[in-house]
Amino acid sequence: MKSDPIQSSAIVWLRRDLRLGDNVALMAAARSGASLCIAFNLDPELLRSQRVGAPLVQTFFDALRALRETLRALGSDLVLLEGSFEANLVKLARDLDARALYYNEDYEPGAIARDERVTRALESAGVAVRAHLDHVYFGAGELSTDGGDPYKVFTPYKRRWLERYRIASRKPVASERAIAGRLIPRERLPHTRDVPHPQEFGHEPSRLYPQCGETYARGLLETFLRAEGPSARYATERDIPSLEGTSRLSPQLRAGTIGIRTCFERAFAALERAEPAGARNIETWISELIWREFYQMILRRFPHVATQPFVPAARGIVWNDDRAAFERWCAGQTGYPIVDAAMTQLNATGWMHNRLRMIAASFLTKDLLITWQWGERYFEQHLADADLAQNNGGWQWSASSGTDAAPYFRVFNPILQSKKYDPEGTFIRAQLPALRNVPAKYVHAPWEMPPLLQAQSGCVVGSDYPFPIVDHAAARDRALDAYAAALGKLRVR
């Protein structure tokens, strides 16, 4: 028997904000005085598409499951819908006699178009729609140059961001506390489906993929920022892939299991407590969080970057359409250990160290001269933190086609990068068993080993480990010629 509709109710539509704490839309809905229904809508077409991969699907489903458990402990539930966003949300509003729907904005072009469709459908049904800024600290239109234009270079953007923070800092919102007593009881909510298993949409789960959930995210932040935690050595250890020197919060920020205001508030509080010698570590992490803000702003203000280079001239680069070379890069079979170890980590765990992302991206776009768009899509399919703004920004930076990009003549030498950031080959050996017994002198370039030593170390190049796919020096010259021709630059020697 159908229960009576809930009077004066509102729907909070979650998307990339799977948490109860520090959630702006949830806070606004609670302040409205309405009884609250929290909903999420699964998109089967997206979940089965090439736009998402198993790591991202698994982390989102984990976060949904954790959120549901929390809501049920509070006597309510997560209403999990599937299919048409417009039809489902209109029906849910009618079932609950909801007068308003609240959500947090998303800057991805596809999400913006979706939200516009949902808004039209809900408003036509007599439901007010309220959008809120949540996934970034300052909105894309809040920080502009003195001339009123969006920033295109990170350093002045960061300077303006910090200036704005000093006069208009934003505290985390107490949404978790505000919803107490406002949630619609579980028995009065529509019947809802279970959180699906990734295999339902064609994705194989793995215990190696990052865990995701609000409580877990808070724990990561606490661990990272504690007095003797990784943040105390962040400036020096964040580039060393064999160390746990980063926050590991990127999948949490992608799923929204922790609020960006919470991260900034905790970071600045840690900065105030830090000794002068240690302040640089916290400042470096804050800078990384602002990079996230910058790339989100770029995507919103320049949406063409989702499919095209930011720099128009970069469209003229003649890429090497070598599918076989690309497949070797994907499989971690390039013959360059640091690149192969990075790709092995990605393929197995759904995560890659940021320094390695730059090395792998530079190798694909410069050494192999393969378009960044192929690499961007592969990362999108294999990262648990796959986010269009961050992924695209990083790839276009490496490919020298984006805003604030690396100069076209910056071509990472994979051997020198390996020696600098994994000097003893600790990370390489952990990822590539064939190189486990190779001496440190040769682990970055095993083809340089004498044949007898190759046999003794159990790593015969060409048999146990591949020969390099390209000669770096020759590949660098090829890339510089291609870039110089497209960008109209003098060839750098």
Please provide a written account of the structure.
- It contains 21 helices and five strands.
- It has helices at residues 24-31, 44-47, 54-73, 85-96, 109-124, 154-168, 175-178, 214-225, 234-237, 250-255, 260-273, 276-301, 323-331, 337-349, 354-367, 372-382, 388-398, 414-421, 426-431, 451-457, 472-487; strands spanning 9-14, 35-42, 78-82, 98-104, 128-132.
- α11 runs antiparallel to α12 (276-301).
- The termini are far apart.
- 45% of the residues are buried.
- Mean pLDDT is 95; it is low at 1-6.
Features:
DNA Cyclobutane Dipyrimidine Photolyase, subunit A, domain 3, Serine Threonine Protein Phosphatase 5, Tetratricopeptide repeat, single chain, disordered N terminus, 21 helices, alpha/beta, 5-stranded parallel sheet, 5 strands, globular, 493 residues, Rossmann fold
Topology:
Layout: E1 9-14, H1 24-31, E2 35-42, H2 44-47, H3 54-73, E3 78-82, H4 85-96, E4 98-104, H5 109-124, E5 128-132, H6 154-168, H7 175-178, H8 214-225, H9 234-237, H10 250-255, H11 260-273, H12 276-301, H13 323-331, H14 337-349, H15 354-367, H16 372-382, H17 388-398, H18 414-421, H19 426-431, H20 451-457, H21 472-487
Parallel strand pairs: 1-2, 1-4, 2-3, 4-5
Helix pairs in contact: 4-5, 6-12, 11-12, 12-17, 14-15, 16-17
Short description:
Helix content is about 50%, strand content about 5%.
Write down the Rg: 24 Å
Using the 3D structure, state the CATH architecture of the largest domain.
Answer: Orthogonal Bundle
- Number of H- or I-type helical stretches: 21
* CATH-defined topology of the largest domain: DNA Cyclobutane Dipyrimidine Photolyase, subunit A, domain 3
Distance between the termini: 79 Å
CATH class of the largest domain: Mainly Alpha
Percentage of helical residues?
A: 40-55%
Flag low-confidence runs. Answer: 1-6
In total, the number of strands is: 5
- Going by helix content, strand content and strand pairing, the class is alpha/beta
Percentage beta strand: 5-15%
Which H/E pattern describes the elements?
EHEHHEHEHEHHHHHHHHHHHHHHHH
Which shape, going by the Cα principal axes?
globular
Give the averaged pLDDT, no decimals.
95
What's the main sheet like? 5 strands, parallel
